[in-house]
Amino acid sequence: MVFQKDPFNVIIGGVGGQGNVIASQVLGRILLPKGYVITIGETYGASQRGGAVMSHLRISAKDQFSPLIPEGQCDLLMALEPVEGLRILGQYGNPSVVSLINTRPIHPIEIISGQTPYPDVSEVLRRIGELSKGVWAFNATEIALEMGDPIFSNMVMLGALSMLDMLQIDRQGFEQAIGGLLSSGRLAQNLEAFDRGKMAVEKI
Amino acid sequence: MMNGGLRALEERVFDRDLCVSCGACVSLCPYLRSWQGRIVKLDECDLAEGRCFNYCPRGKVDLNELHQRLFGGPYKEIEMGMVRSVLMARACDSVWAGRVQNGGVVSALTDLAIKEGVIDAAVLTDREVNLLPRGHIVSGREDIMACTGSIYTSGPTLEALNRGPWTGDERIGIVGLPCMVLALAKMRTSSLEKRTPIDRVDLVIGLFCTWALDYKSFMGFLQKRFGDRTIGKVDITPPPERIMKITAGDELHDIPLDEIRSFIRPGCHVCPDMTSEFSDISVGTVEGEEGWNTVLVRTERGEELVKRAEAKGVIESQPLPGDKLSHLKEASLLKKRRAIDALKDRGELEDGYLTLSRELIQQIQSESKEAP
Amino acid sequence: MSIIAQDTPGETVLLMGNEAIARGALEAGIKVCAAYPGNPSSEITGSLAGVADEFGLHVEWSVNEKVALEVAAAASFAGLRGLCTMKQNGLNVASDFLLNLNLTGCEGGLVLIVADDPGALSSSNEEDSRAFAKLGDLPLLEPATFQEAKAMTKWAFDLSEDLGLPVLVRTVTRVSHARGNVLLDELPRPTKKPRFDTSRPRIALPVLTNHKLLREKLERAGQVFETSPFNFYRGPEKPELLIITCGSGWMYSLEAVANLDLNERVGILKLGTTWPLPEQMVLNHLSKADHVLFVEEVSPFLENNVKELFAQNCVDLGLKRFSGKATGTLPDIGELNPDIVISTLQDILEVFYEPVSAEYALRAKEISDQLVPERPLGFCAGCPHRATYWAIKNALALDGRDGFVAGDIGCYSLGIGPSGFSQMKTLHAMGSGTGLAGGFGQLNAFGLDQPVIAVSGDSTFYHAVMPALTNASYNKSNLLLLLLDNSATAMTGFQPHPGTGKTASGQDAPILDLEVICKALGAQVEVGDPFDMKATTETILRLLQDVEGVKVLILRRECALVRGRTQKKLFNMEVDQDLCLGERCGCNRLCTRVFKCPGLIWDEIAGRARIDEAICTGCGVCAEICPSLAIRKEVV
Question: Are B143 and B291 within one domain?
Fold first, then answer.
């Protein structure tokens, strides 16, 4: 399959500690065996500690691209946290971007301290909708918490992403990709998270 | 009365160096703590109104309004506040002799009040090592004994009232300095949600006070003078001698008062109250009569306790001789006069902590005499 | 199995730049790798540590970068291939040895990878470590892609052996911390026996002889670089604008040229060998363009070197226009990205570019500015450092003498910001907090009466605090050092260190006890639990009052992230909504407004605090601070 655009630019965003890096790596490992040239740029290091994090994923049939996507050129956004989705659209959005959003907020320090309020999530989603061609959203964290650990949110989101049918993500590819990456003890749970994400996502 | 929170407390009291470390603002919230005789702000609090400023005896004090709310009448007895009767008294039980300075009336009355069930417990002041005063909750004679003796450094006694531990239904008595007694009056009449046992305070015994020393700087002075030697008993001899007698290590030392005046808390210089005017009973020394106390009975509650103490033979009393009474009034009025002068010098007579009518100020100025 | 150990030559896999470097070293047949962790370099040695047993390597986390380079150099002296990795600050530490090692040369291939952090995304400074190559007359390579990171590392060992010199490879965050396709090659299993040739001592003396030899080696490197496949040109024969670039600048330049459709007008000379320059090649390209733009990270290194070269040859080359960081055309601070290069090309060549309509771009920016809050870094939920700084803050406030924290490098550096209650007032190099505090301690004699608290993490202690502590003891300074022992090099990815009882490759190691070391270095030592904030505050206060001498308070609690990997929460936390005072007098949101643990939520509508069950790690610390005992902890 050839993407409608080459390179096809995906941004995965969230908060340090949400498993952003793993999600982008899994996605890369699903797509690379299908013959694509993948480039992933990641922001982490110090930003692991609760800061805003982003992974830029570039999928091309022919070339390696810069690990940073130029502004305004995101084709698909997967945000593990709602305002992080909006933050990314502010810089990388364009009228044809499709957005998949985990609706569960994580409060930054100034919101915890009450200096500024966290914006109303439905307002955030509405604004994301205004800036996107399509929006898919659900509370992935709640599903992960039901499974006993919020850390599964990223895999729940990848399951949801597979439903969008924009990238070639299948369950088998996912299983292979996480095989060499995550501890074998948690494979079953990660697969469950993927499956539950598939069921839960809704277009709004 | 003007409202304010921690910011006002900081700007109007701490920054102006008016804090007297009474402890009224401590243990109400996580932002204020007492340490080494000082009240320390740990974090900012932006509430427009808070108990800390509301209870502070240097926060905002309108004597007339406070008097009105507490005693139901205007503030007009400018010499020593409202007084029902004046006595000269001393404790009868020899258990207090030698432990206490002067007549032991405070300890004896507290002891009786607990024994008779007038109160269940009392907040007194004791000393940690090296003179550091702190509030101490007592419920029996043994504990009272630990709290006898004079303390010339100011300390956060009222913190103990705020902090407890209390079971929740005990009636409470408090012995404190004029600033503390003033704070208690403010606590009682405050319109803010209390969440402290102030409404269960049934007896307030106020002490006479001319000033208190700042703990940290005074300790620094003593340390320079006496090194690591433990500081024991401290007393100041009555006028005209006025010498601080201090035990350091095993020796008794004399320090002339002039050497320690610079350690008097600035907040004491603006204090108009020598005799704890908002108490039930106020107790002090009798000039020239060692072993006796002056007792000012101010309220019905106070009167009842003093009468009971006399009836039970806990204290004995006689009228305070006229010359001593007028001397006392002079001294009390002089403290008021000096406070007004100090406020004037600071430029805080108008927008300072103390609100007094122009008439009262004039009256104090005209009636007070400079001491010989 | 680790992906870098995959013995499938010809297969393409997805590797992080740092993994590609590690794979390159494996393909070069290294035997020894030594490093001190530091972002963005940490994963190179980290991933090699994971395959050390399988490949019979010695991989170690050394206590600092200088020792690491010495360990790797020893392997080289004995004829084996050695790798040493570090971040830019590390090269400053290692430079003393490096600037002698250049004179003695080496035997087996010796490669030093230094990962720069343009924009200081995870560093206390922004530094271009390429200056050390020029300073030390050492050959320098800069990979631009993941494939090149692997190939260049591999080749660097050959080059090192060829020249008898250590080779510097400079990478940057966007190469090291990015991933892409990498084609795997053979994995050799060398069995060479190490031997130090005593007939060829490695001594820099006589210096002038060895310096001359070094200059000759460098000249030879320049000749080798003329034909290196890592240097190439892409573009028209006579470009209107010549971009000379290296490292991540290559990808940005390509992206910019493609986006602006400038293939016919702009040529790109991509250099992989940046010191010494492949002079003839560069001169050849200079002769074909009148305007040259340099795209490189951090400093105008290539730019100024090429201009030097141009100056020597300007009679032949004629007038040229040079643009880059030195000319202010590109920003000379911060990290580059494709957009910066795009807009620079737009300006120079006057072309139009609008990836999205101006109307959309403006609206998107407005909405995001209006609704999206800042999200600064902070301590994780359950982090012992938050509790430590709480105790420090309260102790310094009670002490009342305007005391402060002399900071050091690690997660606890976040003590400069709100999650550490802004207590940290100095922050420099590894170990500098203790060195400075020792210096402040000497100023008491001149009347300095502010107390100073030095902080150091456990790993930093072994790295550079020990000499500073020794100095304070010996010179009779007054010092209070808080050793924040969280049993990990947490900031860089939880590498083991001499206090953890494990080596890089997971074997048991002797634990070098912090208490014993500090005592041996002349300090009076106490140990506390940072989660007991009340006791910690009192201890700090007490230690501050007693000014004389060198004191160490070890505050021991495992990193919450490390703990969370293997253990359950300590407590289930709950905020009793009836007891919570919220904004009322008596609390005013202490837990959320002041303590600010991310595991707490301020529920504005209810006017109460809540626990965020997705974030809270159940450390129980907030229960201690709640004035109304509304925060309850229940043992799991």
Answer: yes
State the chains in contact with C (3 or more Cβ–Cβ pairs under 8 Å). Answer: A, B
Q: Which residues of C513-534 are buried (b: 16+ CB within 10 A; e: fewer)?
A: ebbebbeebebebeebebbbbe
- CA distance to partner chain C, nearest, from residue B164 (Å): 14
The predicted-structure confidence for B75-104, as pLDDT tens digits, reads as follows 989 999 999 999 999 999 877 766 656 779
Pair type for strands B85-91 and B293-297: antiparallel
Residue B156: inside a domain, yes or no? yes
Q: Which of residues 517-546 of C touch B (CB under 8 A)?
A: 541
* ipTM for this prediction: 0.96
Are C356 and A150 an interchain contact pair (Cβ–Cβ within 8 Å)?
no
Contact status of C589 with chain A (Cβ, < 8 Å):
yes
Q: Would you say the pTM of this structure is higher than 0.90?
A: yes
C373 vs A45, A69, A108: nearest CB: A108
Q: What is the mean pLDDT of residues A46-65?
A: 86
Express each pLDDT in B327-354 by its tens digit: 999 999 999 999 999 999 999 998 899 9
Looking at the 3D structure of chain A, how many domains does it have?
1
- Range of A87's domain? 8-203
DSSP per residue over C613-624, as a string?
TTT-----HHHH
- In a domain, residue B57? The reply is yes
Q: Does C614 touch chain A (CB under 8 A)?
A: yes
pLDDT at A198: 94
Pair of tokens at residue A142: 């709640």
Contact C376 A51 (CB under 8 A): yes
Touching chains, B (3+ CB pairs < 8 A): C
Task: Classify residue A48: in a domain, yes or no.
Answer: yes
Identify the closest residue of chain C to A62 by CA–CA distance. Answer: C181
Query: Residues, chain B, total?
Result: 372
**Which residues 106-135 on chain C approach chain B with CB closer than 8 angstroms?**
none
Q: In sequence order, what are the beta bridge partners of C420?
A: none
Answer whether C540's CB lies under 8 Å from C395's CB: yes
Q: Do A46 and C337 touch (CB under 8 A)?
A: no
Establish if A3 belongs to a structural domain: no
Residue B80 lies in a domain: no
Residue A107: how many other CB atoms lie within 10 Å: 24
Whether residue B189 contacts residue B214, with contact meaning beta carbons closer than 8 Å, is answered with: no
Residue range C566-589, pLDDT digits in tens: 888 899 999 999 999 999 999 999
List of chain B residues whose C-beta atoms are within 8 Å of the C-beta of residue C394 = 33, 42
Domain encompassing residue B225:
215-263
- How high is the pLDDT of residue B372? 46
Helix (H) / strand (E) element for C15: namely: strand C12-16
Counting as contact any 3 or more CB pairs under 8 A, the partners of A are: C
Domain count, chain B: 3
- Residue B43: list chain C partners with CB under 8 A: 393, 590, 594
